[in-house]
Amino acid sequence: MHECESGEHTAKGPYSESSALLALQYCTLTIVSRLRWYNHEHLHNGIRYVTPVDRYAGKDAGLLLNRD
To answer: Which of 1 and 63 is assigned the larger pLDDT?
Structure first.
Protein backbone atom coordinates (compact mmCIF):
# COMPACT_ATOMS: atom_id res chain seq x y z
CA MET A 1 0.00 0.00 0.00
CA HIS A 2 1.26 3.51 -0.74
CA GLU A 3 0.35 6.75 0.99
CA CYS A 4 0.88 10.48 0.63
CA GLU A 5 -0.17 12.71 3.48
CA SER A 6 -0.82 16.34 2.61
CA GLY A 7 -2.21 17.73 5.84
CA GLU A 8 -5.84 17.52 4.77
CA HIS A 9 -6.11 14.01 3.41
CA THR A 10 -4.23 10.83 2.58
CA ALA A 11 -4.12 9.09 -0.79
CA LYS A 12 -4.24 5.31 -0.33
CA GLY A 13 -4.83 2.41 -2.65
CA PRO A 14 -3.83 -1.10 -3.61
CA TYR A 15 -0.40 -1.41 -5.16
CA SER A 16 0.04 -1.52 -8.90
CA GLU A 17 2.62 0.18 -11.07
CA SER A 18 0.11 2.58 -12.61
CA SER A 19 -1.52 3.48 -9.29
CA ALA A 20 1.91 3.87 -7.67
CA LEU A 21 2.96 6.24 -10.45
CA LEU A 22 -0.25 8.24 -10.08
CA ALA A 23 0.24 8.36 -6.32
CA LEU A 24 3.81 9.57 -6.77
CA GLN A 25 2.69 12.26 -9.22
CA TYR A 26 -0.09 13.31 -6.86
CA CYS A 27 2.30 13.51 -3.92
CA THR A 28 4.83 15.48 -5.94
CA LEU A 29 2.21 17.98 -7.12
CA THR A 30 0.82 18.32 -3.59
CA ILE A 31 4.25 19.01 -2.11
CA VAL A 32 5.28 21.44 -4.85
CA SER A 33 1.98 23.31 -4.55
CA ARG A 34 2.26 23.52 -0.77
CA LEU A 35 5.88 24.73 -0.89
CA ARG A 36 5.06 27.36 -3.52
CA TRP A 37 2.20 28.68 -1.38
CA TYR A 38 4.29 28.62 1.82
CA ASN A 39 7.25 30.47 0.30
CA HIS A 40 5.57 32.81 -2.22
CA GLU A 41 2.13 33.64 -0.78
CA HIS A 42 1.96 32.92 2.96
CA LEU A 43 2.83 35.93 5.14
CA HIS A 44 4.97 34.78 8.08
CA ASN A 45 4.57 36.52 11.41
CA GLY A 46 8.15 35.68 12.45
CA ILE A 47 9.49 37.89 9.65
CA ARG A 48 6.96 40.71 10.05
CA TYR A 49 4.29 39.36 7.70
CA VAL A 50 6.26 39.13 4.47
CA THR A 51 6.91 36.02 2.40
CA PRO A 52 10.20 34.14 2.73
CA VAL A 53 10.92 34.83 -0.95
CA ASP A 54 10.55 38.59 -0.41
CA ARG A 55 12.71 38.41 2.72
CA TYR A 56 15.44 36.41 1.00
CA ALA A 57 15.44 38.75 -2.01
CA GLY A 58 15.79 41.81 0.26
CA LYS A 59 12.40 43.21 -0.73
CA ASP A 60 11.06 43.11 2.83
CA ALA A 61 12.49 46.53 3.83
CA GLY A 62 10.65 48.27 0.99
CA LEU A 63 7.46 46.36 1.66
CA LEU A 64 7.57 47.22 5.36
CA LEU A 65 8.36 50.88 4.63
CA ASN A 66 5.36 51.13 2.28
CA ARG A 67 3.16 49.38 4.83
CA ASP A 68 3.86 51.78 7.72
So the answer is: 63
